[in-house]
Amino acid sequence: MKAISLLVILISSSFSSAEIQCTSLSQTVVDWFITFNRGGMGSSYFIDAGGDTWQLANSADTPVANTFQKYFNAINPHEINVIAYNNFPPRFKRKFDTSSGKGVIFMDATAGSWIVHNIEQFPDFYINSFERQRVHLPGFILCFSIAPDQLVKVVDAIEYEDPIIYFYELPRLPRMDVWNSDTFWHVLYGILPQTTPFLATKAVQTIGNLSVLVFSKLGSANMDIYSKYITYESESSLITYQAQYEYYDEVHPIVCNSTYSVRNLYGQLKLPREYVGGKGTWTISSDDNNTLWCFSSASRGRQRTLKVSESVVCLNHSGIYTRFAEIGISPNAPFLEQCVVGDSS
């Protein structure tokens, strides 16, 4: 695939056998969690499968820290499979502009997790502890607990992102079936990126049977994935949050037509006790009968989205939808563009 895939980092420190599933603040395994890292202070707000309200966790004891510590504190490397990808890898001077994906996959013989995020240069597997990781930047981190039979589906989904794999460990035992698949070796070593089809929808199932839909487009698909694809696949109008843009003309414009609309939401997030700076693109349905919530590490910028391989992770979950709807379509919401009656843009 890319030269970076050949720069395999092998860590010689000791590990232990552990099921690295998503782990809550109370150190119990959960089906999923979503955290918003506040930046600077290192603390974060989170929601998880154990409860649908935002909670605040300090930097030393967050769901993300508890999940990663299972890896960094482990003893036996032969029981943990790891794939880490980031278009701005740790210790690199610049990012790769043709890809946008950021994530980590952990898997042992019985269970694992798929972590999706939008934090550059994270995690650094040269650093054998979580406390020293680069997580002081603001951003989202999502975790999904998955069974081994879902691993091939995750790899199949991230293939569309043309991922920059900067670290992997493939233990001889247990040998995962996905390592024998053409998809995996294409992701790891493929010199040429996938060229067709331009768009794809994949599905990954969590251990708790939450369906994670992954909408993807190739870099050669010269289009806005939200207005041209996700609206029609989900049969829903959308609101997309655009925190990282100061000027509205840097973002794909509002789309208003008789079928589905896509409106942009700007400003700071209003979480339980404070306004916090945001980063990343998240999306909710604006239809009353739809509970869709989506996240992407790629922006909806005009220039970036035209040439960048991109995936958008979506969940139909009423609790998650409600928490973000309170931010996006409540009276306390940041600036939300409105469609004008008769506007067919």
Automatic annotation (TrEMBL):
<dbReference type="InterPro" id="IPR004947">
    <property type="entry name" value="DNase_II"/>
</dbReference>
<feature type="signal peptide">
    <location>
        <begin position="1"/>
        <end position="18"/>
    </location>
</feature>
<dbReference type="GO" id="GO:0004531">
    <property type="term" value="F:deoxyribonuclease II activity"/>
</dbReference>
<comment type="similarity">
    <text>Belongs to the DNase II family.</text>
</comment>
<keyword id="KW-0378">Hydrolase</keyword>
<keyword id="KW-0732">Signal</keyword>
<protein>
    <submittedName>
        <fullName>Uncharacterized protein</fullName>
    </submittedName>
</protein>
<dbReference type="GO" id="GO:0006309">
    <property type="term" value="P:apoptotic DNA fragmentation"/>
</dbReference>
<dbReference type="Pfam" id="PF03265">
    <property type="entry name" value="DNase_II"/>
</dbReference>
